[in-house]
Structure formats: structure tokens, C-alpha cells
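User: Continuing from earlier, I have the next pair ready.

Assistant: Great, send them over.

User: Here they are, in order.

Assistant: Folding the first of the pair now:
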Amino acid sequence: MKVLVVEDNEILSRNIVRYLSSREIFTEASLDWEDWLYKALTKHYDVIILDINLPRKDWLEVCKTIRDRGKEVSIIMLTSRWTNEDIVTGLDIWADDYLVKPFEYSELLARINAIYRRRMQNQSNTMICFSDIEINLKSHEVKQNGENISLSKLEFELLKFLAQNRTKALSREEIYEVVWWESGNDFVFSKTIDVYVGYLRKKLWKEVIETVKGFWFLIP
């Protein structure tokens, strides 16, 4: 799990990072909105812990920018404002949860773990994850280490079929029947599957797909 802490109180920010890191959660921190927006848009995080009282910027506007870019990240608001309006606005629009300062670090950890579990449960029917690769079955998006990988329709279907049968060696005939024939592509040269495996190897890390005895392919 990767967490980004956005808090301009340097002592509080450092303490949160230290606490979460001691629980084996990879945690980074930002002290201002420019830095955290850059990190949120260029890196992959599972959870952002956001102080919504940061000066000089509307936090709702920054969250909207992140959502508009298609970033799938959970946001926990930290707020010293004890008003229902602030909380309801955040939860209705962009955020997933909130904590009012001061708070116990153990409670923050519990909120992070609960959000992460919900996200994994929601993704179980729409996501295939292995190694550093995420395959979104709903949006047909593929990410490696948080970066989008552009695939054609057949490349996506091939990767999906291999991922759905991880550790199983698949013959060219099995791949053809599911990826090509069921997709309406009922004519394929014998080497076409090898060509498309080659396409995937160039776009992903080469060791993602293995060749077994020259006849079968698998994702280990």
C-alpha cells in the first residue's frame, strides 16, 4: 500500500509518516498543494491523507483535477473544522472518509485499512492485479507500476486471458478459441499469436509472459 500525506504542519506530517512507516506502509509527505498535486498526478498512491485547511488553494478544486485525470485513489480528509457542511461537502463530492483534529494515529491507521479493504473488495470483480500490473476489466485500462499502458483490443484480450489463467500454460489453440474466435476474428495465421505476445512483451516487462517449451504461454 502507498500513502501520501498532505499536511502543512511539518511536525504532524513527520509523525504520521513515521507512524505509518513503522506499520510497513510506504508513506510520503507533501507540505504544500503544488508538490502534492504533482505527486498525485505523476505517481501511484492508494490513499491520500489530505489536510483540507491548506492555504492558498481550494482543496475541492485540486481533488477535482485528480479525479478528472482518472486517478483511482482514496482520500481521507483531515480537518479542524467541526461543521457538518464541510464534512458532507467532502464526502458527497470527492473524499472517502474524514478525521477531525486532534486524532489518534491508531484511528487513522484503522481508517486507512478499512478504505483499502473496501477498495480491494470493490475491485475484485473488475480488476486483475499481479506483480505491478493492474487490469481494469470495466474500463479496459492497463497500468504497470501506476503508469497507463496503451493496448489494442486484441492485445488487451490476450493479456486478460493469460492473467485470468495465471500459472497455467495455455496452448495456441486455447488462446485462439477464446481471444480470436470468441472476439469474432475467426481467421488467424499460426504465428499471429506469437506476434501479439511479442507486442505485449515490448509494452510490458519482458518477463511478464513466459514461453513454455516453445508451444505454450503463461503468466507465472
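And the other member of the pair:
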Amino acid sequence: MKDFIITTSQSLTPDLENTALKLSEELNVPYINRNKKSLTQITNNPFVLVVTRQKLILKTPSGDFFFHPNMAQLRIKNLREGKKDFMVEAAALKKGDSFIDCTLGLGSDALVASYVTGREGEVVGIESIPVIALLTEMGFLQYPWPNERMRITAKHIKVMRMNHLEFLRTLPDRSFDVVYFDPMFRIPISTSKGISPLREICDANPMNFEAIIEAKRIARKRVVLKETRYSPEFERLGFDHFIGGTYSDFGYGYISIKEEI
């Protein structure tokens, strides 16, 4: 993650400043008083976290980065209508299941998992980049969800700011039903322009095979990996089943723990 600074929108209020100061301390990054100036007047740093009344916005050279549920709401709508979701199918996800999203990002998959598993289930999202974890965690709570069900679905996700391998090592055997990975694709999908800012700040390292070993130890049902359709990562990491749409750029590999045992 690049170094960045924190400031507020130009229309400064005491509440905005207090929030910015709190986040500055929490993330251990500098706060600069906006004082009604433009961003270029207060800093030459291209990475700036701006606290506004509506949301947090991270300014990057590739564009603005902020929380948005992306396709999650449409996927949930499709599930309500009885349509399939390939991630849900790959994970064999059911109501009451427990689910770890090891690469949370903006939490689109975690939202779908939280909707499917419901209040009886458990969804944990792990994000190693603190500012991304912050944007997503606050987004879950502050986004103007269209209904109470979606608000509860988002609120039910527990966000943790840490390395997923470190977290997985702390868990006992067979403690979660599904362990899920959606790392940044090795080869970008050209149509996914909206995640360009995310590429500038995310952890772009390839998946560690040790994390898969830990995931297989922890999972009761399945370990799932999302990747581009013909990615060599599936074979390298031992994912021997594949689910995906015929015309989709990506798909889901999974390891069935019952078959492993």
C-alpha cells in the first residue's frame, strides 16, 4: 500500500474533522486540515483519503476508490428469484453455514454469503490492507441500503484487518464450513476498469500455498478460489473442480473436504 494522507471535504464541520483525526490516529497516517483549499494546494501526495458526510473516498492516480456493493445486490436479487449463483454453488453454501472471505476487498462476495447464510450463519471478512478494510467496514454500516434485509446482511459481516494466513493459523481444525479466496487476478480482465484504483493499493502477491493447506485443515465443507477462467492458479493450488458460466471471464475452483478426507 502506498503512503497516503487524510483530510476532509472542503465543507469542513467539527464532526468531519473529529472523524478524520480519529482515522488518522487509527491508521497511523498524517491528517492535513483542508481549510477550504483544493487537494493539490494541501499536498502533492496522489493518495488521499477524504472524509465526507456521505462516505470515505480514497483518491488515487487511477481514480476514486470508495465502497459500493457492485454486483452483490443484483446477485442477491437473482437468488431471491430462484436463480443460481456460481460462488454459492461452488461453496455449497446453505443457511446457517460459517464462511471466511480471506480476501475481502469491497466485500461483494461476503455480502452474498451473508445473505445466504442468514442470521444463523457467520461471515468473517479478512483484509490485509487497513485502508481497504476501513472503507469496506464503514461502507457496510453507512451505505444507503434499499431495505432492512440488506442492512442486516451487511451489518452481520465481521471485518478483520490482518493477513489471512496469520488468521487461518489461529483457527482450530474444522471450525468453518467454507474458506474462500478471491485474490487480485494475475492477468487483469480488460472490462474491469472500475477496480483500477484497487489494483494500486491492494496486495498483489500470488496466493501462498500454505494458506490453502491451512484452509483445508479449517474447512468442514469446501475451500473455494475465484480466478480467471483458464488461470494456472487452479492447478498450482490443487483446485480440482470448476464451476463457471460458459461466457464468463472468471470462475470458481473448489476442493471438497469430504473427498480429501
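Worth noting for the second one:
Residues 145 and 217 are 36 Å apart (CA to CA). Residues 72-260 form a domain with the Rossmann fold fold (CATH 3.40.50.150).
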